[in-house]
Amino acid sequence: MSDNNWCTKLAQSNCVAGVMRSLAVGALTFSAALALPGSVSAQSSDAQAYSKIIQIRPGDTLSHIAERELGNARHAQQLADSNNLDINIILKPGEELIVPVSLPVRDEHATVIFAKGIATLNGDDLKPDDKVRRNDEVETGTTGYASLEFQTGTIINLQPNTLARIVTLHCRSGDETCIIEMAAERGKLSTDVRRDGDQPTDFKVQTPYASAAVRGTKFDVDSDPTGLRIGVTEGNVALGAVSSDQVVDLDVGFGSASAAGSRLGSPIDLMPAPVFRFVPPRITATDVVRWFGLTDVERYTVQIAATAGGVGVIHDAVVTDDLFSHNDELPTGDYQLLVRAVDVNGLLGFIATSPVTLANVDPNIGEVNTVVTRENGNYRVEVIEAPDEATGYEIQVASDANFTDPVSIDVDENGLAFVRLNSDNVFARARALIDRVTVGPYGQPTTVDEE
To answer: Are residues 132 and 224 in the same domain?
Structure first.
């Protein structure tokens, strides 16, 4: 879509003012002037201003539409003013019209489902189960994370150094449309917009540079003093500049990177999801996760979280190679590993996810050794000198002594595995499994005994 053809011929003369009042994506709109961070709204204390886009029907006049949409034909002048039209204009069927709506203020809220590190709600410590209401500010520090869940299941994840607030919230199961508007003065947001049954969700985010009206969907917003980066990994987004009439459509798989003070960037292909090369059955501080490297990648982000949607981050890292290991003491248990490529524009690509189990190495458990022999075209790997407390073993087999590209196998207390590997050089090592999150150290690598 070009910069201007989102405006109908009816409203073409008022495209600049119109984009400040309302950005449309199909049935979705964004009231940008109401969502500017730090702004004070002129709306009354018992109502929320909102606008929607309707399609003109045959025979419609401004009075007919005012009666139908606003309950009184006397509001026709308000419709005319909102669209920069003469009150007596002849409307053309099929064209679109901005309809300003006043929504009642209700005691609605989003619920905090995760909070970690430095995170505050209106200056106070943010805690799980806190309620976030309209105009409440959620801020995360350099180590802070927060996840908000709305009634329909929509989830917003706030990354470190983010300041955001709810501008409009009108989202109960009986409402015609779930309306959520947020303002992000700075920082990074990731969204998973969901709907409650057939109820559509109208979700928007305003940054100091542009507003994003969303159909779908999953997308990322990164706003800081240098500019804006936004990428869409599901659905589509209409990005509208705050200070001009420019609009950029972003379909799934595209992003936009804009420098402060410049026009919105044209759509850019997002990086694909990395393909995992090796994810061990369990990860300790000595284990390495590998994926196949992508070209034109600036870096990769790696998160370990409670869900594949990024809720409950317990570890966050940036790496430049196609591998990851950690040296931190992390809580043991079952998690999701999320890996994303970042291009030279700073745009996050699609997410590769894998379930992982975090485990600890117990230094009091003795090392176990292995013997490798050829048997009927296979390699027979057997654990020897096993500790009594072992309930099983993790055996790794690779074609090099550094175990760059290994195969991992869990076996029972018999400690025996048969492996077919397309290599004349085979190395094996093993460690004892005490329980599903406690292991012993690896023994020394061994290779084929030809005797």
So the answer is: yes
Q: Are the CB atoms for 175 and 151 separated by under 8 Å?
A: no
The pair of three-digit structure tokens given for residue 383, joined into one six-digit string: 């654990």
Domain count, the chain: 4
Same domain, 85 and 123: no
What value does the mean pLDDT take over residues 411-416? 93
Reading the block at residue 76, the tokens are 């026709």
What are the DSSP calls for 396-433, one per residue? EEESSTT-SS-EEEEE-TT-EEEE--S-S--EEEEEEE
SS (H, E, C) 21-82: HCEEECCEEECHHHCCCCCCCCCCCCEEEEEEEEECCCCCCHHHHHHHHHCCHHHHHHHHHH
Task: Judge whether residue 37 has pLDDT over 70.
Answer: no
Domain that holds residue 412: 361-447
pLDDT given for residue 190 in this prediction? 95
CATH number of the domain that residue 372 is part of: 2.60.40.10
157 and 311 in contact (C-beta within 8 Å)?
yes
**This prediction's pTM:** 0.80
Three-state secondary structure call for residue 438: strand
Instruction: Note the pLDDT tens digit of each residue in 344-395.
Output: 999 999 999 999 999 999 999 989 999 999 888 889 999 998 888 899 999 9
Give the domain CATH number at 204: 2.60.120.1440
Q: What is the CA radius of gyration of the chain?
A: 28
Q: Assign residue 103 a region (left: φ > 0; alpha: ψ between -120 and 50; beta: otherwise).
A: beta
Are 121 and 231 in a shared domain?
Answer: yes
DSSP E strand stretches across 251-298? 254-259, 268-269, 275-278, 289-292
How far from chain centre, in Å, is Cα 190? 3
